[in-house]
Design goal:
By secondary structure, the protein is of the alpha/beta class. The chain folds into three domains: 123 residues, 3-Layer(aba) Sandwich (Rossmann fold), CATH 3.40.50.2300; 158 residues, Alpha-Beta Plaits; 145 residues, Alpha-Beta Plaits. Helix content is 50%, strand content 20%. It is built from 16 helices and 16 strands. The C terminus is likely disordered.
């Protein structure tokens, strides 16, 4: 049954209205505007019959309060009045009423008018629902046209528009340009289904590390783009890129693709590297090109590349002076200690040499066994291991921190068992320098001339070194 709220301070009028309507409608009767508003806090009737002349709060004031409530704004209101002059009638309609019923009530007229209003309300709701449905359909079509069919990410046109809007409003952020290294080999060797699965995994990796306001895009093919919205330090942006690279590295490893595939990332920051989308895009693209030219499987900031180049461009030096400058940067002894990004570039350079000349190169990964140790003690132990590596190795060897608990070492021109011998020598030196209880284990891997790494792990008993 439809529910009708009757508001009238005259109990005789309330009784007459309830008698006329209660056999076909559910009715609720209140005697004041305040009671009506209280009732509407928790109930939504289908029609409100509202008396005009009431003490404390008249019908027009009650009507204004009703329209202020978003939940009640569409409830049909019919005024009850003993005044049937044109001015009162016009005022009722100006206030938003759909109709008015004159007192004293005529049952047939009251029922007829309420019935007509309910029919109109049903038609209004039906049309509103159909309109909402059409709006959703149009929105879905527009959304689908803005999205990449394979990955569900935004397409290039939409991303350019949205990022451009954000930049015009001064929203700080960074544009990541990314692509798959050696992706064509996956399609060629394993089929396009495997290639599509890799692209979907790439999209999932971008979603996993994206913020709420970030915009993720597939440009086309194996190229992707993300606008990381909001101010972020270069360290945080670098970690973001490293997370994406590592996530895809895990996927490619599990997929067992023998294609040497990876992910490269170029990063440009707004407003430092570009004042609009086009300039920011070009900067990120140049940073990506730098990664592709220097070993791939890493990330690079546009600002790092061009700040260094511009600084060098301001100094004219001849080749001899340049050689002297390079020599002065050589510490003269011990292994080279690099950060991991630079280690990666050196590693790929050495790998090219191995491909051409079949040199013997081993990589050692030292890992702290004591996972639950105090962070300060861990840092001290790793620093001492760094010193032991520097002291124990030659100038041709390279070392870098891989994580807070791991150090990686690359041994150039190391003979058979050279990795194991060097690892034992380093740990012996570490034991002499460090008087605590933290212990490092190690793995040795040989770089093959094919460019692939061949695992040189020994058995658990002989491979793990305990101090």
């Amino acid at each position: 049954m439809k529910h009708i709220l009757i508001v009238d301070d005259n109990k005789a009028n309330l009784t007459a209205a309830k008698t006329a309507l209660s056999d076909i409608y559910k009715t609720t009767a209140v005697i004041s505007g305040a009671q009506a508003l209280k009732f509407l806090e928790n109930n939504i009737p289908d029609v409100i019959l509202l008396d005009i002349n009431m003490p404390e709060m008249d019908g027009f004031e009650v009507m204004g309060k009703i329209r202020e409530n978003p939940e009640c704004v569409n409830i049909p209101v019919v005024f009850l009045t003993a005044d049937n002059d044109p001015e009162t009638e016009q005022k009722c309609f100006d206030a938003g009423a759909l109709d008015f019923i004159a007192k004293p009530f005529v049952t047939a007229v009251m029922r007829s008018r309420i019935g007509r209003i309910l029919e109109l309300e049903e038609l209004r709701k039906s049309l509103a629902n159909r309109l909402d449905e059409k709006i959703r359909e149009v929105s879905d079509i527009k959304s689908k046209s803005n999205k990449d069919a394979l990955t569900g990410l935004w397409n290039r046109a939409y991303t350019e528009e949205k990022v451009g809007e954000m930049l015009s409003k001064g929203v700080r952020g960074a544009l990541f340009m990314m692509d798959m290294d050696n992706f064509k080999a996956i399609n060629d060797n394993y089929g396009h289904m495997a290639g599509d699965g890799t692209l979907k995994a790439f999209a999932d990796a971008l979603r996993k590390f994206a913020g709420e306001d970030d915009i993720i895009c597939r440009i086309g093919g194996d190229e992707f783009m993300t606008f990381v919205a909001g101010p972020s330090s270069k360290s945080a942006l670098g970690n973001h890129a490293a997370d994406i690279i590592a996530e895809m590295g895990c996927f490619l490893e599990k997929s067992k693709f023998e294609t040497n595939s990876s992910v490269s990332v170029g990063i440009a920051q707004f407003p430092e590297d570009g004042e609009d989308f086009k300039s920011l895009y070009n900067a990120a693209d140049k940073a990506l090109y730098c990664v592709k030219q220097n070993g791939k499987n890493s990330y690079h900031f546009f600002s790092d590349q061009y700040a260094a180049e511009n600084k060098r461009a301001s100094n004219r030096v001849d080749l001899n002076n340049l050689r002297d400058m390079m020599h002065r940067s050589d510490p003269g002894k011990g292994a080279y200690m690099l950060d991991f990004d630079n280690f990666h570039y050196v590693y790929n350079f050495i790998r090219r040499i191995v491909d051409r000349h079949s040199e013997d190169v081993n990589t050692i990964l030292f890992t702290l066994r004591n996972e639950n140790a105090d962070p300060a003690e861990i840092e001290q132990a790793v620093e001492i291991l760094d010193r032991a590596i520097f002291t124990s190795l030659r100038r041709a060897d390279v070392s870098a921190r891989y994580s807070s608990r791991q150090v990686i070492v690359m041994l150039y021109d190391s003979k058979e068992n050279g990795g194991q011998i060097c690892a034992e020598r380093i740990l012996s030196c570490y034991k002499d320098m460090y008087k605590g209880d933290l212990i490092f284990d190690y793995d040795v891997v040989k770089m093959e001339s094919s460019g692939l790494m061949k695992n040189g792990r020994r058995t658990a008993e002989s491979e793990v070194v305990k101090l």
